[in-house]
Amino acid sequence: MRATCLAALCWVSAAGAFAGVEASAIKVDFLEESASADARSMAQIAFEQGDAQGRPVAIVDKKNARIYVFGADGVLRGTTPVLLGLAKGDDSAPDIGKKAGGYIPSAERTTPAGRFDSEPGHNNKGEAIVWVDYDAAFAIHRLRPAHPAERRPERLASPTPDDNRISQGCVIVSGAFFDQVVGPTLGRQRGVVYVLPDQPATMAQAPLAQTKLATSVTPATAPLPKL
Q: In this structure, are strands 128-133 and 84-85 parallel, antiparallel, or unpaired?
């Protein structure tokens, strides 16, 4: 573990160290896009310390409601604002995946933080998405029609991250960004998704077991969650 790592990032740095991952020669390139210090540190851990293990990466900066998508070469493919879970919080509620597509209490509509091994897939309607945590019905997907009162397109287009919390927990991007960036990068192979926490202290001591597989315990014949 790096002694100088930020509290919010120590759990990932430790995961790479204890997994025996050697630092790679890949240099992160944000292509002059602005990014928070936490997002930049996470990208360095993913590529320059080898935690991503040669896979494409997405970093979700919840505090700034923004996603950064990188190819396996460490070069930024694109960045855009995102919609996030309505409630602040870094954990998924128990059995939240079983409630997907139905009523979910407002307090349980969180976007969980952590390191996730993602996998491309489809929802129950056949729409292409990127599974982040299958059991929690947590995915990255395109903006869809919703009740006009939610003002999702307007929230996504606003210049501030303060109004971007409205989803049931998934990370939502515009249709154009999904088709042009997410699909070609994370929609064709397994990747690694890092979701930065709302509360850094809550993740500082997270063990290696916090890494989750998108379809780790889901039988191939299991019904797809409703999203």
A: unpaired
Q: What are phi and psi of 223, to 5 degrees?
A: -65, 145
Tens of pLDDT, residues 156-199: 999 999 999 999 899 999 999 999 999 999 999 999 999 999 88
Low-confidence ranges of the chain (pLDDT < 70): 1-25, 94-103, 200-227
Kindly report the backbone phi and psi dihedral angles of residue 80, in degrees, each rounded to the nearest multiple of 5, phi listed first: -160, 155
- In 3D, which of 179, 156, 157 has the Cα closest to residue 166? 156
pTM for the whole structure: 0.82
Token pair recorded at residue 25: 């020669």
| HSE toward the beta carbon, residue 213, CA cutoff 13 A | 5
Per-residue tokens: 76: 């930024």
Give the three-state DSSP class for 222.
coil
Looking at residue 1, the DSSP 8-state letter turns out to be -
